[in-house]
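QA checklist item 7 of 12: single-chain prediction sanity check.
[x] sequence parsed
[x] length recorded as 450
[x] structure emitted
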Amino acid sequence: MKTSRPLPSPEGVSPSRRPRRLALLLLSLVLGIAGPLHAAETLDDAWREALAVDARLRAADADADAARANLEAARGLALPKATASTRYTVLSKEPAARIGLPALPGIALPDQLPLSERTYATHALQATLPVYTGGRISAAIIGADIGVQASAHERRHSEQAVKLDVAEAWLGVLRSRRALAAAERHLAALDAHARDVDDLHRQGVVPRNDVLSVAVACADARQQLTRARHGRDLATAAYNRLLRRPLDAPADLAEPPPDSAGHDDLATLGARALRLRPELALLGARAEAGDQEAEMEHAARRPQVGLSAALLHEDNRYRVGQDVAQVAIGVQWDLFDGGIQRQRADAATARARAARERQADGASRVELEVRREWLSAEEAAQRLATTSAAVAQADENLRVARDRYRNGVGTHTEVLDAEALRSLTDHNHLNAHYDLHLARYRLKRAVGEL
């Protein structure tokens, strides 16, 4: 008699386990859709955090606030000014006027007439409005507006400096970690070779000298590993400092994406840098501000015309009307001040000329900086292409040298030299990789596009 067995499920899973498998499948789909719980930090993430906490940018923002306040103050020079004042006066004796009345028989006439009390209070409410200042107010407003523009250039310069510092530190962490991994691979390869040498020595195939030399090589590799570990810790601390984190905080960083975009030629980049670099614009703004400062000093030597109106009240019992209103227009012209205004104008003009000379010198420096960073990027790209092929060749050279040594054909020195060459090639390759990314960021900074 045959016993019937249940038919297997289409997937080969029993019906009792199917709900569990289905739940696991749904959970994996949900996790796959939601994405990883923790993503490695990119350079854009680091820039965003650093720009929010960097003290240089906060100082630049404070300078921008000061420049905007100076602009509003300059605009206020053209508005009416209202003042209220109170004064209490004490005289040694009452002022009086001598009067000469003809003498009358039998009548004693006074020979003085009081003009004011010995103590009295005066209250005034006054408004003044500049009518003509020779261009002094307009020059002050233009100069203050240029100061606002200069503060914007200064902030952009600070922002690019912060971003370059963060990029260098970010790449420094990645470079140090790759260097640590390379040092670990180097030590692991030497340890593996040391085990082969020890086995061959116990078999009497190789002399003890091979055992001692590989032990020395392993000790040196351990020192290199210690230096690489310390370099990783120091690079991480420098990166955390820029982001205002604890220096020993862990940093999980993503590798930089490959730069597949094409690059413009050197002449195009140089012309763009002269147009975009905030340092050059800042020097130009300082030169224009110097021109406006000189114009203000020249304007102060011209006639100054103002309109004023006032309400006066004097607590004086001798005055018939204690409340008086007045309107006046006044002209003030400093005919001679010892040459002070002229010398100040000459000094401002000289400062403007100096700023323009620095701007011209800075333009040539910018062109040189663009050329240097462009050549550095080209060099790093060529090094990366060369070392990419050399890494595979060094690995194959090491494999051949170890096989020859195990078979008794090659020497122990050949293996150590091959491993040292492979380690050097590995370091050259990773340095070329990160040098290329760093050179491209520095080139963007030199152009003013970082």
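[x] summary fact logged: The longest strand covers residues 119-132.
[ ] second reviewer sign-off
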